[in-house]
Amino acid sequence: MRRVRGLETEYGLQVRVRPLGAATPAGWRRLSSDEAAQRLFAPVVEAHAATNAWLRNGGRLYLDVGSHPEYATAECSTLAELVAQDRAGDLVLAQLAHRAQQAWAQEGLEPRISIFKNNVDSHANSYGSHENFQVSRKADLAGTVQALTPFLVTRQLLCGAGHWQRDRLGRGHFLLSQRAEHMWDPLSAATTRSRPMVNTRDEPHADAERFRRLHVIVGDSTLLDHTTLLRVGSMELALRILEARSAGSTTRSPSLSRGVSEPGLAIRRVAADLTGRTPVTEDGATALQVQWEWWRAAEAFVDDEELRTVHELWAQVLIAVEDGAPGRIADRIDWAAKHRLLRAQRERHGMASDDPRLAQLALAWHDIIPGQGLARLAEQRGQVQRWLAPGVDERSVEEPPQTTRAVLRASFITAAQQHRRDHTVDWMTLACHDLDGGQVRVEDPLTTQDGRVDELIRRMDTEPRRARSSSFRSGLPWSPSTLG
Fold it and tell me: Are the C-beta atoms of residues 119 and 222 closer than 8 Å to each other?
């Protein structure tokens, strides 16, 4: 049952600057997304000669299409590792913002930097947070996605980020999910237009004859520990159900044979209904009924403490939705926490549904800059719970997961930077270009020991460099923790 998983998160970036000491609110200049991103990534470019860096925690930081900062976690085989690695990405970006603030101040400018871990901008453009699961090459991808479609359409009840959307008349409405409005097909190769819930990208980053990567792009970016845990953990249990069925298990669930005739329309209807009573399947099952059926089927596959926590939280969320009491889960689930915030502010200040301050509050929830983001402030004030132990996410900025090949990549990167070696890495390959035969390919993502990697690290310390290639990257000992 061990498998590797990972998350990729695209962030929204907003920067305004004005002269230091300006006495009035006027004078702010908003930077273009490209200018803001280039300034944010200046330390990365200085160290790596590119807006792409592999970090000492085994993850990857880079600029994606549209000048979106993106962070990909290292491979993780436990849910705790994955939640911590995901949070580490927020800290890495926040540290880059701190460094950029210092640089602008030296130029006599006062910046206001916001980095949003959300999925839609003010122009209704969407960007994603993608979940990756290692699955068998023998699995029928189309059949798997067809079976998963009712689960994915309704999973936003568990782990939607919440969204305050204004209609054409300017009236605001609360939705469970930000991504739901941008989903169309269950499965396709598209990523920007006509987005699918599962993308067919076939990059297993492992032995391609044995494995493929299930690339799930329907989910919202999540900020709270428990929501991220439930988001990935419920998907893990759903995959186990389908894999057991494929292997001939007698475990059955009615939802596995149900179809959704118009998934794009269904996922939007579910997003607009906080009661979970919207019919979803062709035979009329509601979002709540679909989720309860998957929950019951999942019970047989709970075999460790992490998944037991997932299964229990899953039920708690469904019961709260069923009872019309989202306040019960507002200390752990993103959409419920945001709903509580907006409702409280409307009541306190007598805001109408078209009040623009509500959209501003909803956006501020997602800001990951310390002291600015409302989700992180709610954590500091004890209004929402943490699942991770104190300090785990901070350590994950520098430390890789210990149960996957990320630990080998991290050791290689650290040694190469310390010895100023000409090196490159990707998910499977470690290459020291100024050593003869200095390349190792690690195909098994679950391996944590490899004598070839140990030998390559030893050679970095003992063997002289051969002539550097023209593509040499500086390999400066840069890491996120050095940024502030």
Answer: no
What are the distances in angstroms from CA 288 to CA 38, 270, 300, 423, 441? 45, 10, 20, 51, 46
Encoding tokens for residue 399?
């430390």
Single out the residue of 14, 46, 50 nearest to residue 33, CA to CA.
14
Biggest CA-to-CA distance, the chain: 72
- Per annotation, catalytic residue among 64, 185, 355, 444: 64
**How many other C-beta atoms can be found within 10 angstroms of the C-beta atom of residue 283?**
10
Phi-psi region of 242 (alpha: psi -120 to 50; beta: other; left: phi over 0): alpha
How far apart are the C-alpha atoms of 424 and 381, rounded to whole Å? 42
| CA angle in degrees (0–180, nearest 5) for 225-61-201 | 85
- Could you tell me the two tokens for 478? 């840069």
64 is catalytic: yes
- Which value, in Å, is the radius of gyration of the alpha carbons in the chain? 23
- Mapped onto helix, strand or coil, the DSSP state of residue 254 is helix
**pLDDT band (50, 70, 90) for residue 326:** very high
Strands 5-10 and 129-136: antiparallel
Which pLDDT score, from 0 to 100, does residue 235 have? 98
> What is the spatial distance between Cα 235 and Cα 217, in angstroms, rounded to a whole number?
12
Average pLDDT of span 437-461 = 97
The helix (H) or strand (E) run that includes residue 295 is: helix 287-298
Question: b/e map of 112-141 (b: 16 or more CB within 10 Å)?
Answer: ebbbbbbbbbeeeebbbbbbbbbbeeebee
Long-range contacts of 349-355 (CB under 8 A, 24+ apart): 353/171, 353/172, 353/173, 354/166, 354/169, 354/170, 354/171, 354/172, 355/172
Q: Which residue did the predictor score with more confidence, 258 or 19?
A: 19
How much of the chain exceeds pLDDT 70, in percent?
93
Q: Give bridge partners of residue 175 from the DSSP assignment.
A: 163
Position with higher pLDDT, 257 vs 319: 319
Region 147-168: mean pLDDT is 95
Flag whether pLDDT at 130 surpasses 70: yes
- Please compute the mean of the pLDDT values over residues 264-269 and round it to a whole number: 96
User: Vertex 130, ends 240 and 243: CA angle to 5°?
Assistant: 15
pLDDT tens for 280-290 read 999 999 999 99
φ, ψ dihedrals at 188, nearest 5°: -170, 180
For residue 479, the model assigns a pLDDT of 58
- pLDDT band of 253, cuts 50, 70, 90: low
